[in-house]
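Two proteins were folded this term; both appear here.
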Amino acid sequence: MDYPAVAYIGGAGPRRHLRILAPLVELGLTLVGPPRAAYTGVVSAFLRRSPLVLALAVGPACIIFEYPTDTDSGGPGDAPTDIEPTGADNDPTEGCPCAQGTELIYALSDQGTLLSFDPVDLTFAHVADVACGGMHDTFSMGVSRKGRAWIQYSSGDLFTVDINEPGDPIDCKDPGFSSGHPQFPHFGMAFVGNSESDPCDKLYVHSCIAPDLVGPDVGALGVVDPQTLELSTIAPLDYAWGELAGTPSGRLFAFEGSSPPFLAEYDKMTGEMLEALPLPELSPGVASAFAGWGGDFYFFTAGEVDVGSSVWHLDYDASDGNGQALTLLAPHAPGRIVGAGVSTCAPPDAGSVTSGP
């Protein structure tokens, strides 16, 4: 997930990323965060079309959201219309088999480069650049059993690419998703298995507005119907920002919060937070993504705009004998990672979180 820079006019708060869009005004949300946070600032959201400036009162301060014109970043309102349509992702009547390559973790850079990451030998491999109607401002990604990487752009539009398609670049396709849901202008996403006995999966989403936006019902958990692609809300959440990861057995996890961030497990049917594990060593920075694989989690975080993401491993199931240890695997990935996804064809999950945020 990628975030614009924030230039603070007053206060000494952290230079956090605040992607707060017009739907915030429609929902009447209020910024709530750590007392030290200075929310007065100018947010450049890199959107297209004509510039738009609006303001929200936040206690004694005021945030100004400036949306400058950008003709080729994939801003809202100018989604390409010449992209080939594609059908529903999984057909339950076929048993939802696994496509080739769906056992790996896939990572997406902010420039639209698709990479694979092998958690066994800890290596990245270039898959292809994504060609999607001239758009390259990617935001987040999930990967399905069918071998499709579902990519959201900063416009809010959702397109897919086949990870096994030959050639480079590979063309995106339009699954027919309609963006613009007021609770999900942008979202983190992951495919999650239906249950241990049902291998088919669904795409779950977490609203992505701002890491420091915390309070009753400021965020939401949703699910996309695999056949109709209709996005529906499961439950409100107290965190307005979150990345998601799913498991073959039907467990749903989120990387959310910022002071510190934490790993939470949610009931995917009700939106109830079951348990959470604080991760004070990590920071969402200017870009973040994560994925679950084989009972563990892999985090990709970038603290600076022009630096590749750091890669972290959380031994979530404590199988290495050192508890739930968090280890830095690599200081710089080949690019700034804004999306990571692994299908439900990956090795099964294990373990449970042990402490709260």
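Next, the second protein.
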Amino acid sequence: MKQWMKKSLAACLALVMCLTLAACGGKEGETPAEESVNVRVAALKGPTAMGMVKLMSDYAPVEEALEDKENVVTAGGGNTYEFTLAASADEVSPKLMQGELDIACVPANLAVWDLTRQYPIDPASFQSKGRSTPFAGTTVYGENLMTICGGKAVWQK
């Protein structure tokens, strides 16, 4: 599979996961009241934003919103979507952390951890030549199980 297809699929899956989690609120049997919500979405220019193309094209621009911003569209339920396309992840990440964005589609490097697993620190198992540590033999919580960089598993236990 080509690299751009993998990135597009990852962006689509991330968007679906975010939207699925957003829909999980409320109690069973309770019908939530329909409210207009402003959803702020950002992605990187290029393949990362390809997963949002359908969302962007499905909704017609709202004339009132166009007076303030050119990139605001509304969904059939009255929700508005504000799209931002950025040149680098450095522009998107701070906005997401500060709460200025609701959804961010950026390529990710990941580390998979099991925070419940305990293990003793063993300098012989270090992946570097430096084995000196004051924590040898100390039992700790949280073990790295896999590291993903550039979409590829570069280390796995």
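The CA atoms of residues 83 and 116 lie 38 Å apart. The helical segments are 3-22, 53-58, 63-68, 89-97. These notes refer to the second protein only.
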